[in-house]
Amino acid sequence: MSDEQRKVGVAVVGVGGAVATTAIAGIELLKIGACGYEGLPFADVTSLVPYTSLTFGGWDLDGDDLAKAAHLHGVLEPRVVEAAGAGLAAVAPWPAVADPEYCRNAVGANVIPISSVRGRVDHVRSDIERFRAAEGLDRVVVVNLASTERWPDLTLPALQTPEAFEAAIDADDPVISPSMVYAYAAITSDSPYVNFTPSASADIPALLELAHQRGVPVSGKDGKTGQTMMKTVLAPAFRSRSLHVDGWYSTNILGNRDGQILEDADSLSSKLQTKGTVLDQCLGYEVEDHVVRIDYYRPRGDQKEAWDNIDLTGFLGQRMQVKVDFLCRDSILAAPLVLELARLVDEAARRGEGGAQEQLGYFFKQPITRDGGEPEHALYRQEQVLRAWLDH
Amino acid sequence: MSDEQRKVGVAVVGVGGAVATTAIAGIELLKIGACGYEGLPFADVTSLVPYTSLTFGGWDLDGDDLAKAAHLHGVLEPRVVEAAGAGLAAVAPWPAVADPEYCRNAVGANVIPISSVRGRVDHVRSDIERFRAAEGLDRVVVVNLASTERWPDLTLPALQTPEAFEAAIDADDPVISPSMVYAYAAITSDSPYVNFTPSASADIPALLELAHQRGVPVSGKDGKTGQTMMKTVLAPAFRSRSLHVDGWYSTNILGNRDGQILEDADSLSSKLQTKGTVLDQCLGYEVEDHVVRIDYYRPRGDQKEAWDNIDLTGFLGQRMQVKVDFLCRDSILAAPLVLELARLVDEAARRGEGGAQEQLGYFFKQPITRDGGEPEHALYRQEQVLRAWLDH
Amino acid sequence: MSDEQRKVGVAVVGVGGAVATTAIAGIELLKIGACGYEGLPFADVTSLVPYTSLTFGGWDLDGDDLAKAAHLHGVLEPRVVEAAGAGLAAVAPWPAVADPEYCRNAVGANVIPISSVRGRVDHVRSDIERFRAAEGLDRVVVVNLASTERWPDLTLPALQTPEAFEAAIDADDPVISPSMVYAYAAITSDSPYVNFTPSASADIPALLELAHQRGVPVSGKDGKTGQTMMKTVLAPAFRSRSLHVDGWYSTNILGNRDGQILEDADSLSSKLQTKGTVLDQCLGYEVEDHVVRIDYYRPRGDQKEAWDNIDLTGFLGQRMQVKVDFLCRDSILAAPLVLELARLVDEAARRGEGGAQEQLGYFFKQPITRDGGEPEHALYRQEQVLRAWLDH
Amino acid sequence: MSDEQRKVGVAVVGVGGAVATTAIAGIELLKIGACGYEGLPFADVTSLVPYTSLTFGGWDLDGDDLAKAAHLHGVLEPRVVEAAGAGLAAVAPWPAVADPEYCRNAVGANVIPISSVRGRVDHVRSDIERFRAAEGLDRVVVVNLASTERWPDLTLPALQTPEAFEAAIDADDPVISPSMVYAYAAITSDSPYVNFTPSASADIPALLELAHQRGVPVSGKDGKTGQTMMKTVLAPAFRSRSLHVDGWYSTNILGNRDGQILEDADSLSSKLQTKGTVLDQCLGYEVEDHVVRIDYYRPRGDQKEAWDNIDLTGFLGQRMQVKVDFLCRDSILAAPLVLELARLVDEAARRGEGGAQEQLGYFFKQPITRDGGEPEHALYRQEQVLRAWLDH
C-alpha cells in the first residue's frame, strides 16, 4: 500500500490546547494550500506518511469544539482559524482523565466519569479503538500535549516493572498519574506514544519495558522548542571554541495557559528538572551558575520571550558575555514538531522498531534512552542521528 | 625527533598589533603557568607541536617593542602585560612592506627601504631565513595579521598563473599588494602561510597553484571570531528547524585599530565581502535582507560588541525574532585561533600536504577551497572535518 | 461659538502616506468609539478643538484613494482599515508639487502640472481655499508629512528675508524646495503650518519672519517619536545622576517607505542632522562618539526597531553600559502627535500667537526657535513648558 | 565658621561592605586628585560641606580592616584600592549589633557582646560620641548600609509611638530590629540618620515622631540606583506620551554579598516591597503585570545586570515593546549617592530642619513622607524639588 493511501490517526491528550489546535489548523491549511512548509523540519522526507494523511482526535477536559478553543488561545489570527474552521470544528474532544492531585490548575467538566484506574485505562483504550474504526485508520499514534503534572516519587516500586505497574493499576495506587494512564493505554493498544510534556509518563521503567516487550515505539519527553533548543545550539559552539561557560542565566516570560499552569510550584518543578542537565551534557562539565526562571506574564499571551545571558571566559581568562533574546511563539514552534513526531513514530512502527526511540532525541529537552543513560543534547548531533536513521 | 624538541617559528605580518601581541603574551603566560587553556580549541590534541615550542618574530610598520605596543592596545591589563614582558620585549619588529595604495590608514616609519617588488620579496625572504637560522627553527610559518587592504581587480591576468605573477613582480605591477608579497615570499621559502585577514593574498589562483606545486600549505582567509562565528552556529540551527530567515541585520561596534582601518571605505568593502556569502550557504537559499554594518566607536576599544537581529518565519507563516548581543573581545577570540593555525599548518607540512588546506575552514569567514568552489560554513561541520583530519 | 461646533481642516502634504492614513483612520475610529485615547498626550485638555472636529484633505504624488493606500502601508490590520474605510475613501489626494532634485525616491503621477514656482504656490493656495469653502471650515492647518528632502544651501540670501524669498519665487530659483512652497502657501493663506519632517521649510529665516509678520503660527521640525524621544528622556537622567556619557551608538532598522527614501544619501543626511545636536544639549557637553545609523530593512515594514547602546562612566571612573531596544511602530507613534499638533496650532491661532511656536518643542527632534538659538530638548522640560502654556 | 573648616563624621552601619568601602576609597582618591566627580550629582553645589571634609567610621560584623575588605569585594581594581589604602586602613570597624532573626545570611564575629536592647543602644550611642570626640567632628551623621533585614510586623503597637518604642526597648521586645537600634541611637544622639537599605528603620511611626520632636533629620529608604532609577525615568515618559504600560517585567542578576543576602526569602520580600509601588505612582494607574525578580548569580560579582521588558499599547491599540539592559555596577552607583546624602542631611541639620526629609526622595526607592502618604517617584520631579530646596 502506498503512503498516499495510508491513514494515520493522531489521538492527542489535550486536543483543545494551543499546540494541538495549531497543529490541526496547520494540516487543514496545508490541505487547501493556504500555507507553506516553514517550521516542518522533515517536509523533504518522502518516506514518511504525508501530512495530509493525518487525522485528528483526542481528549480534553474542556469539551468545547476546537474552532472555539483556537479563537480563545489567540495563537492564530481570526481569519486563519476561520480558514481552518471546518477541520477544527469536526474534532469533538473526548472526555479526559482528571486528577487534581497531579495538576491543580488544569480543570474542566469534560471528565471520564470513572474513578477506578483500571476503568479509566479501559475507557481510554476504547476511545482509541473507536477512533481507529470510525476513521478507518491504519494506525493510531497517541501524543501527550496536556498540562504539566507534578512528578510522583519516581523511585517507588510500582513504577519499576510492568508487573508491579499492573498491580498498582488494579490497586488504584495514587502513584499512577493521568499521563501514565494514557501511556499505558496507548502501549497496550499497540499505538505508538509520544510525550511532548515534562510529565512522568512512558519514560518510567515499567512502561519503557512494556513498550519494549510489545514492540510499541515510545518517545519523549518535553518538546525542545525555544530557549532550550537555542541552548543546545549555542553550548556546543562555545565548547567547540573552548570558551568556558561561567554561568548561564535564562528567563522566560509567557502568558498562555502553559504559563498559568507553571504558576503552580509542583508543575514548575517538573519543568525545571527537564531543563537542567541539558547544558552540562553539551559542555562536558558542570555549570555551577545555571539559573532558569519561568514567569507567567499575561501581556504576551502565546508570544513567549526567552532572554538568556551567558558569561564566558576566553583566552587568558578574559571575560565575555552573550545575550540572546528570542521573541518566539510557543505553539508555532511546537505544533510542527508534533506533526513530525506523529509521522516518525508511525515510521518506527512500520519498521517494527519498538521501545524507546532514541533517534528522536532531536525533539526533546529530556530524550528518553533505552538504558536510562544520559542522552545526547547537542542539536546538530541529534539531527545527524535522526537523518542517518531516516536514510537507513 | 619528538614534538617536544621541535621548534616552530611564527613570523607574523603585523606583529605589533593587538592580536599578535595577545597571542605572544599568551604563550609567555602558558610557559610560566599563569593562564589556562580557555579559548584554545585543540589543546587536547597531543600530536601537534606544543604551544610552548612556538617562537615569535615578524614585521610591523611600527618599530616599537611589543611590550610597549601591548600596553597601547589595552587588550590585556597592565599587570598581565608585565607578567609577559620579557617575552614581548624580546621581539623587535622587522621593517615591513608599506603601500598606502592598499591601506591608507596603516602608517608607520619601520619600512623596508626598497621600492622594487622583487627587492621587497627578497627582503622578506631573507627575514624568514635569518629568523630560521637565528632561532634554530625546524620550520617557520608566516601568519598575516596586518590591517585590511583594499582589493585589487582580482580578474587581472597577472593574478591567474604563477608565471604571470612572476612577470608582474619583475614589472613592479601595482596589482601586487603587500599581502601578496608576504604570501609569495613565504611560499617560495617553503614556509606555510596563513592569511587571517580579509585581504587578497594566497587565495589568488597564481599563489594557490604555486603553493600546490611546491607542496606548501596555505590557509585562509579572514578569521572567524565573533559575529560571523555565531552566524555559522545559528543559521544551521534555523535551517535544521525549517525556520525561514527573512532578514538578518548585523551591526558591530569596535574601537581598536582594526575599527579605525575600516573607516576607510576600501578596506571596509573587502571586509564586508568576506562576510557576505556565509549566511546563504548555511541556509541553502539567498537572504535578500542581509545587512552588515561595522562602525568605529572608540569607547569600546578592543571590546567589540556585535548585535544581531534575525527575523524568522515559522509554521503557518508566523513571525518570530531573535536578537543576539555578543559583548566579545576581538583579540581575545582571535589570538588563540592564530596559535592553533600555526600548529595546524605546521602539522600539514609535516604530513607533506601542500596547497589550500580545506580542512581548516573552521577558522575562517571565507575558507579557501582548492577548486574555488563554495566552502562549507556551518561551524559544526567544519569542526567535524577538522577533527576527522586530526584523527587520521 | 463652542469648540464642539468649530470645524478645523487638516491639509496634509503627503496625505496618502503611512502616518497620515493612520491619523485619519484613528479619527474615524474615535468617531465610532472603536478605539481609545492611547498615544494621544493631550486627550485630557478640554480647551482644544475636539479630535472629531478635525476634517482631512491633502496632497500626494500618488492619487490612489486612502483606503487602498492604508492597506498597502500595512500599518493597520485589514479589519481596522475596513472599519475606517468610509472616512479614508472620502479623501481624494490633490495633485502635489514634485521636484526630483529634492527627493529622488519619492515619485508619482499625481503632480501639479505647472512648472513655475509662483504658479505652484498659487495652485496650493487655491487648494487650501477650496478645501476651506467646500467643508465649511473655521480654519485650515497645513501639516507636512512628505518624504524627507535633501537640504539646499541654507545660507543663500534668497532664504534670509521675505523680500528675497518673494523675488526667488518669481525667478524660479531652484533653492526653493517643495516643502518651502507648501509652507509659503500656508502662511500666506493664514493657515498655521506644521513641519513634521526633517526638510528645510518654515524654519528658514525668510519664512519665520513672514509667519511672524502675518501672525501665523508655524511649528517644527521632524517629529520626535521613537529613538530620539527616548534619548531626550534618558540623557537628562544620566545628567541628573552625573553619569558621564562616553559614547552613544544608535541604530535603526525600518522597512517602510520612509526607510526607502532614506536609502538616498541626501535625504539621509538631512535626517541625521536633525538627530545630531539633541544629545549634547541634553547633557551639557559634547559627546564625541555619538553615532546614528538608519538602515532600510524590509522584513520589518512599519515596525521599526531602534537599538541604542550607551557607554557611561560613573564614580571613580568605572564604566557601565545601557542598551535599549525599542520595538516601536513608526506611524503609530507619529500619527497621534500629528493630531495633537493640528489642535495645538489651531489653539495658537485662536490666541492670536503667530510665528515660531516654541512651546511645541515637545513634539520635535529639532524645535524651531524664534531667534535661531539652541532649543530645549529634555522631554520633561518640554512637557512642562507646553502644559504651562495650555494652563495659561 | 566656613564650610571648609567644618568636619562631618559619617558613621556607617556596615562600614566594611562594598558600598561603604567604595565611598571611603572615593573620598581618599578625591583628596589626592586621583578621580573626578562622575556620579556625584551635587558636586556643583558649593553650600554643602566639601566631600573632603567627610571623615568615616562605623560598625561591621566583620572586623577586618577596610583595605582588605575592599580587595575582597572586588568592586575596585587592586591598584585603585592600593591608592586609597591609607585612608581605608585607618578605619577599624566597631563591633556591630547582630540578630540572626532579622538577617540570617549576615554573619560575623565582630559583635557587640551585650544581649539587652537598651545595652546595645547605649553601646551604639557611646560609639557615636567617641567618634565625635576623637575626630573633633562638628557633626556625626549615621548611614545604614547594612544587609537587608526581614520586616517585623509593622502594625505592632510598639512601633507606633516614641513612648511605646521606649518601653519595647526596655522589655527587650523582639520587634526591635538592629536597624531600629541604630536609628534610635542616632536620633537620640542628635545625629542625622540615613537609611539606604530596604529594612524597616527610622521610617516607623515611633521613630519618625521622635526625630520630629528632637529636630533630627531622618531620611530613607532603599537607595534608588539602577533598575528602579531607570523605571522612574522611563515610566513618566511613557505617561507623558500616553503610551499605556500593559506589563513590566524586571529581572536582576547580581553576584555580590547583597545578592547572597537576598537568597533568603525574608530579606528578598522586604526588597521587593520597596520596589513595588514605584511604577503605579509614576503612571497614575495600576500595572497588573508588574513582575520583579532578583537572582543571585555569581559570575557577575558586583557588576549587576538589570534587564527590563516593557509592553506598551499605543494609538489604535497597537502594541510595542521596550527592552532595557543595564550593565551597571551596584556599588559604583550607590557610593556617590551615600556621600551626597551625608552632605545633605548635614545641611538639613544646619538649617534646623528635623524629621522626615521629603526633599531627598530623589535618592530612594521608597521615600519616607512626613504623613505616610504616597511619595513622588518620578526622578525629574524629585530632582526639581531637591534643587529648589538647595536654592532656597
Summarize the structure.
The structure is a homotetramer of 392-residue chains. The first copy, chain A, has 392 residues and is α/β, with parallel strands linked by helices. Chain A contains 13 helices and ten strands.
Would you give an account of this structure?
Four copies of one chain form a homotetramer. The first copy, chain A, has 392 residues and is an alpha/beta fold. Chain A folds into two domains: 3-223 and 332-391, Rossmann fold, CATH 3.40.50.720; 227-329, Dihydrodipicolinate Reductase, domain 2. Helices cover 39% and strands 16% of the residues of chain A. Chain A has helices at residues 18-31, 66-73, 78-83, 85-89, 117-135, 162-170, 178-188, 205-214, 227-240, 257-261, 265-283, 330-350, 379-391, and strands at residues 8-13, 54-59, 139-144, 193-195, 217-220, 244-254, 289-296, 305-313, 319-327, 355-356. In chain A, the strands form two sheets. Chain A has a six-stranded parallel beta sheet, sandwiched between helices. In chain A, strand 1, helix 1 (18-31) and strand 2 (54-59) form a beta-alpha-beta unit. In chain A, helix 1 (18-31) packs across helix 12 (330-350), helix 7 packs parallel to helix 8 and helix 9 runs parallel beside helix 11 (265-283). The longest helix of chain A has 21 residues, at 330-350. Chain A is globular. At the A-B interface, helix 1, helix 9, strand 9, helix 12 and helix 13 of A face helix 1, helix 9, strand 9, helix 12 and helix 13 of B. Strand 9 of chain A pairs antiparallel with strand 9 (319-327) of chain B, so a sheet runs across the interface. Chains A, B, C, D: This is Myo-inositol-1-phosphate synthase. Chains A, B, C, D: Keywords: Isomerase. Chains A, B, C, D: Residues 226-331 form the Myo-inositol-1-phosphate synthase GAPDH-like domain.
